[in-house]
Amino acid sequence: MRLSPDDHFRVRALYENIRDWIKRGELPPGARLTYAELYTWPGATHCHIASSALWLLRKDGLVETRRGLGSRVVVPGQEWSVPEEDRYLPLRLWVEKTMRQRLADGVYPPGTRIPPLEELREEFDVSKTTVRFGLSPLIRARYLLVQSFNQRRTTASSYRWTERGTIVTEAVKQVPRDELLRPDERDDLPPNGKFEAWGASNTLIAWSRHSRCKVSYHVLYTRVYRYYWPIKAAMTTPTN
Fold first, then answer.
1. What is the tally of structural domains in the chain?
2. How far, in Å, CA of 60 to CA of 58, rounded?
3. S-S: 29 plus which of 8, 75, 134, 149, CB 3.0-4.6 Å?
4. Any idea what the Cα angle at residue 226 is, between residues 238 and 106, rounded to 5°?
């Protein structure tokens, strides 16, 4: 995204503010720099300004960013990496686990909006699809509520649909903390990656090529992994 001259000024101002806070010790080594926090600081009007400021801080060696972890102030002599127990988690599960932790810790209080997909994509360094998969269990559990879209007039003859955002519901206060932190369990997913149907066992991509399958692999994958459809229903229900 091309930044305007005003945005360049905001990037520089945000960068200098964070740099000075780090040098004065107001942001100690190990302090996390999430987009939710950056947005409360002057100048961070959108994620591209925040990400550009973080890039300058990384260039100075003051901040480090790790995929799936986010960004933090550098701790001299200490390596920052994903905990051993989470190192081999699929990225979507890591997104889910991190977001559950933030909900439990009150980073996103009930009634507030979580950051948009683009910001979470930037922070986790994953695709928007991966972020959506990570948020899906929280939406199904009704911890998050995706609001409808707004129709906004852009010209006399055209409209633009804009997403209102995803808000945190009161349900996060109504469940025990350990339940909120517990990752979503998919008991119906086979451990070997092969799905049983019509007396045969095949991988999802093999079933997508089967003569009984009426949908594309993308539709089949989305139905099974994102929406929890039974394998036969997912294969035999054509799209409208």
1. 3
2. 5
3. 75
4. 150
Mean pLDDT of 63-91: 75
Residue 215: inside a domain: yes
Residue that is written with structure tokens 């720099």 in the block:
33
Provide the whole-model pTM. Answer: 0.56
Residue 32's CATH number:
1.10.10.10
C-alpha angle with apex 103: 102 to 105, nearest 5 degrees?
Answer: 65
- As to burial, measured by CB atoms within 10 angstroms (0-12 exposed, 13-18 middle, 19+ buried), residue 211 is exposed
* Residue 96 near residue 135, CB atoms below 8 Å: yes
Sequence-distant contacts of 1-8: CB under 8 A, at least 24 apart: 1/48, 3/48, 3/49, 3/52, 7/45, 7/48, 7/49
Sign of CA dihedral 51, 55, 56, 57: positive
